[in-house]
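Sequence in, structure out.
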Amino acid sequence: RFNRDYLTPEEPECPESAFYILEWFEELSSMRRSGYSGPESLAPSDIKAWSELTGARILPSEFGVIADMDSSYMAAVREHQEEERAKYKAQSDEAAATARGKRVAR
């Protein structure tokens, strides 16, 4: 849902009257910057620029909801990254142990 193949959350419960905020967030999220460590948080300046370019008038309360959604998204990204690091470390440790065992067996 957030334009990241590795992070596809379940459809959130959202009142129909606020669904447009979810759509705004998805649009903003699809344009977020990504660095060496993965996606970056949405900066207030990014949200402001998007609002000005699209003509969307964001109320302070709506901005707060978008910021909270972004915090939740980034927490999920960090959790996923930690799981992937742990999986990679386990695979690396196993490969190293296998390699050591083969050297000893020779």
